[in-house]
Structure formats: C-alpha cells, structure tokens
Amino acid sequence: MWLILSLCSAIFAGFVSVLGKRGMASVPSNLATAIRSAVALLLAWVLVLVSGVGSELVSLSARALIAIALSGLATGASWLMYFKALKLGRVAQVVAIDRTSLLFTGLFAIAFFGEANNLAFKLVGLVLVFVGTLILVWQRGGFLSESLAWLPWAIGSMAFAVATTLLAKAALDSVDSTLATALRTVVVVVFAAGIAWSRGEFKGRASLGRRDYVFLGLSGLATGASWLCYFGALKLGQVSLVAPIDKLSIVFAAVLAYFVLGEKVSKRGLIGLAVMVAGTLVLVI
Question: What is the pTM of this model?
C-alpha cells in the first residue's frame, strides 16, 4: 500500500509544481503559498472529519505535537522558498534541486531510523538519483547561461524538505497520518500567511483574477492530496524507500511543464531523468 501512496504522492506533486507556476504569473509567491496551503488545509480537515480520526486529538502526546509543529514550520519554510524559486527559475531545474533532499533524507533515515536493510542497493539507488538530478540541473545552455537568482531559494527549500520528512516520520509513530497532515497544515497556513502579511502582499489580493484563483485552488488541492498520500506512505513504509519514489514527481513535473508551459528538456536533461528513474527502481527492487 505504501508503494501506491508514494506513486500517487509523486503524481500529485508534479501537478503542484506546474499549476503553481501558472498560478503565480501575477501573484506574489508568499501570498500564493498561503492561498494554496489554505486549500490544502480545507481538504485535509474534510478527510479528518470523514474518517473520524479527529477523536485522537485528545490523546496526542506533547512529543508528537512538538514534532508535528516543527514539521509544519519546516514545510512552510520549504514551500515559501520553493515557490519563490519557481517564480524566478524554470520548473525542471527548481524541482531538481529541491529533489536532492532525497539523498540527505535517505542517509539520515538509514542513520537514525535503522533502515539499513539492503544497504548496498539503497546507497547505489540514492547516488544514482542524486547524479541524475545533477545532470538534469546542469543542462547545456540552461544552467550557467541564465540568472541563478532562483538557486539559493531552491537550496533552502531542499534543506527544509529534509527536516520536514524526518520530523514527520518521528511524529507518525503515534499519530494517524491524516490527522498529522491536517495539524501540520494549520502551522503551514499560519506561517505562510504571516510572512505574506508582514510583506504587505495581502494588499494585492484584490487584483487577482478568476484564472489566478482557479490555478491556485487546483494547486492547493494537488498539494493536499500529495501531502496526504506522502505521509500515509511514511506511516506504512520506510523513509529511505518512500522518499525516492515521491521524488519521481520531477519526471511528472518535467512532462507537464513541457506540454503546459512549453519548457523543453534537453537531451542531457532526459538522460538525467532516466538515471533518476533507474536509481529509484534500484531502491524499490
């Protein structure tokens, strides 16, 4: 089941990147993240009510609540940086840098969660995915010839993404994944909205058109679905296996970016994608 949830998470995450890019054409990135997260929050709590897991709220330990809160803060910081990078750079390259979090997440999971079974295959798979990511980022005529203003934001997004997964895994040992996702999304919304408000971005919401809201709404639904699937997979499976499959979202994002945004991937980029997929298959098999 964790495998199916991981694949669904990757597919939805691919839609998040492209829909988010389309929805930010005239919207400040922090405000866009706040709106998107609010939609994801609504979806998460609807599922909490439908599934009936809300009753577990009263039995949550302080340790679990702290881990969920920290995971939410890390998620908020990661997404704010991620969509800032998307606003400045190309989807395939931004997603690729962000997805290098896989290597560090896998290594930390092996070290701290004892996920050392089939260690050789895991290490080979992680390295292949990392190398494939670097190949994709270093596209001829794309990486060095363009402004690198997006790069620090993408690197920051990657670092906080690692913290998000490790903290969430720590919390999921004693919390239903749907409830944990709903709680951490509350933190994300408050964090993102606070940043947007402090920068005066809410003043520009009156100028948003129907198209902006449609794309941000769809991106928010995709975000919520991706988070629910991802943390459901983390609850059932190993971090070092779930994370690599989720990072296949870069493949879906690159394909969608080509058809929706017209962003072409070079031959070198295609080789990078192929190496990433090969590395993921090594990990899973």
Answer: 0.77
